[in-house]
Design brief:
Elements: H1 2-28, E1 32-38, H2 46-53, H3 56-59, E2 62-68, H4 72-80, E3 86-89, H5 92-99, E4 106-113, E5 118-122, E6 138-140, H6 147-158, E7 168-170, H7 178-183, E8 189-193, H8 196-203, E9 207-211, H9 212-216, E10 222-227, H10 228-233, H11 235-254, H12 257-264, H13 273-285, H14 297-309, H15 319-322, H16 326-331
Parallel strand pairs: 1-2, 1-3, 6-7, 6-8
Antiparallel strand pairs: 3-10, 4-10, 5-8, 5-9
Length: 333
């Protein structure tokens, strides 16, 4: 009897140990969910979709729950109200939050795009376009206070055009309705993101004549950011996130526009593969996709110069206050 008891007890201990080790292993290998709110759905954000589709986030033990929040104000509200862990939005939004005296500032930790992503589209075909041809025209611009509008006006001024006096500037149309307004006959020129700009060109509704990204230089146009509290409580997760992004950025840099288009095609079901390829190639050729997640001080200052020029900079903020480069630098080594 005693021998049977000893054997049974030994088996019980072995089983409990096995269960315990399995539980520990599961805990160590547990997948961490990260809720990401993107400001819009755009081919401009190709490296993000590549990171998901190529399994780079999964390799780091992250499960990305991606939601499109359609607009900078809505995206930031979602982040601040804990509806998302990470936001993909323009860096200017973190400055706006900071200026309101937030106790939990929003920190930029990984840059995705490094130029403006919009293009100037004319209604009529223009041969040998020059910026001064906009004088006297009706220009359908972007929402006041957003990066597209600020960069747009910055570029116009750089080319000797006063947006308020040299043209008829329309800025009272919601972001989602700008393309439709132009298609319906409003404006001689419009500032559009891709793939809408290329679709309009393909359908004969407009003609791409210039790139605001090429004209404005490097700016932290779209970055991943999180509340300071989240970053402090989830340091490993944020580092893994940045590492996965860097893998995707390098993959995008090293692969063709065709291969990139094939990977991100599921995110743009209503867009032809050939058109996605055209847009990716356009963004790659003008250096819109950042090749690493580091948001440097020069880019940050350029952003604030553009905001200041547009009269939208509430206060100047030092780079180290709202930007954490240590994580991006570590994963990029």
């Amino acid at each position: 009897m005693k021998k049977w008891l000893r054997s049974g007890f030994a088996l019980l201990l072995t089983g409990m140990l096995a269960i315990g080790l399995t539980a520990c292993g599961e805990k160590e290998d547990a997948v961490q969910k990260v809720r990401v709110a993107e400001v819009t759905r755009s081919i401009f954000y190709a490296p993000q979709y590549v990171a998901i589709e190529q399994g780079f986030f999964k390799e780091e033990g992250l499960d990305i729950e991606l939601t499109t929040t359609w607009g900078g104000d809505k995206t930031m509200t979602t982040l601040l109200s804990n509806g998302a862990d990470v936001a993909l939005v323009g860096s200017e939004t973190s400055i706006y939050v900071h200026s309101q005296g937030s106790d939990d500032p929003v920190i930029n930790f990984a840059q995705l795009t490094q130029t403006d992503g919009t293009f100037l589209v004319s209604r009529e075909k223009v041969e040998n376009f020059e910026w001064d041809q906009l004088k006297g025209a009706t220009f359908l611009g972007q929402r006041k206070g957003g990066m597209p509008q600020m960069v747009g006006e910055f570029v116009l001024k750089q080319n000797g055009i006063d947006p308020q006096n040299d043209l008829n500037l329309i800025q009272n149309i919601d972001f989602a309705n700008i393309a439709g307004a132009f298609a319906s006959g409003t404006g001689d020129y419009v500032q559009l993101f891709e793939p809408t700009a290329s679709i309009f060109e393909q359908e004969g509704k407009g003609h791409i004549v210039a790139s605001f990204g090429t004209e404005s230089g490097h700016v932290p146009y779209t970055t991943f950011m999180a509340k300071d509290s989240y970053m402090n409580e989830n340091k490993d997760t944020v580092e893994k996130f940045a590492k996965a992004l860097y893998k995707a950025q390098q993959w995008v840099e090293e692969n063709s526009a065709r291969d990139i288009a094939k990977v991100i095609e599921p995110y743009f079901e209503d867009t032809e593969l050939s058109l996605i390829e055209t847009v990716v190639d356009r963004y790659k050729s003008q250096g819109s996709y950042a090749t690493d997640p580091i948001l440097d001080e020069e880019e940050w200052n350029n952003l604030q110069n553009i905001m200041d020029e547009a009269g939208e900079l509430p206060q100047s903020v030092n780079h180290e206050i709202l930007v954490n480069t240590s994580i991006a630098e570590k994963v990029s080594e």
